[in-house]
Amino acid sequence: MKRIAAPKQWAIPRKTATWTVKPRPGPHPVEECIPLLILVRDVLKYATVSREAKKIITHGQVKVDGRVRKDHKFPVGLMDVIEVPIMGEAYRVLPSKRGFTLVPIEGEEVSFKLCQIKNMLTVKGGNVQLALHDGRNILLPIDNPKVSPHEVYPYKTRDTVKISLEDQEILDHIPYSEGAYAIVVGGKLRGEKGEIVEIRKRLGRRASTTVIQKGDGVRFETVMDYVFPVGAPTPLIKLPSDGGT
């Protein structure tokens, strides 16, 4: 991939060289991810050149969501948990005005991840499959196929689930509703956060929107699909400070 055509959120100089690493197909689309090599070299500054960054990665020194990743092209994206055990450091990938920011985390926060439900499907046997924003699929069993999935499970599209990285179990559920705390993950207001105070559903060409109130009382409106609930009524994760990079 040419550097000049790389997504804007990649923290790389554009005119020092012609080419840069292109992420492999994976859990996040190209425009919403950062290759692991760029993360290690240009964001975390663990290396100065690609060769050094590749050695760090191929030697198994970096974990993504609890698993060692040795592919320097692996795509890292929203809400992923990055661990560097040899340095004793861990980070969560969160949105910011410039694209993405890495928020240092520790303790229990390293063991779980928040994932937004993008779709709910009924699969063979009448069971329900949750399709999450990072490509994960969680199968939920239903004993009686004639019963509606919404009568058995409280989950809906756009809700958020708290996932254990060790066993992929659902630990908690955050509904997409008024009173939930959310962060904006797309559009011009990317990185803004606050409490959901109103959901305006519309039919036709006009997109449904969500009104969010920030801590200072200022309200703003954004497209519903850009809003990612992270807790109710308070966030379950450490969030970036205002103006993160």
Describe this structure in words.
By secondary structure, this protein is mainly beta. The chain folds into three domains: 3-105, Structural Genomics Hypothetical 15.5 Kd Protein In mrcA-pckA Intergenic Region, Chain A (Roll); 111-174, OB fold (Dihydrolipoamide Acetyltransferase, E2P); 181-231, SH3 type barrels (Roll), CATH 2.30.30. The protein has helices at residues 36-43, 50-58, 149-152; strands spanning 33-35, 63-64, 67-68, 75-77, 81-84, 89-96, 99-104, 112-122, 128-132, 137-140, 160-164, 170-174, 181-184, 193-200, 209-213, 219-223, 227-231. The protein is globular and about 55 Å long.
What is the approximate shape?
A: globular
**What's the CATH H-level superfamily name of the largest domain?**
RNA-binding S4 domain
Structural class: mainly beta
Task: Summarize model confidence as the mean pLDDT.
Answer: 91
Q: What can be said about the biggest beta sheet?
A: 5 strands, antiparallel
Number of domains: 3
CATH architecture of the largest domain: Roll
- Gap between N and C termini, in Å? 23 Å
Q: What is the radius of gyration?
A: 19 Å
According to DSSP, the number of beta strands is 17
Strand content: 25-35%
Major sheet: order of its strands? 3-2-5-6-7
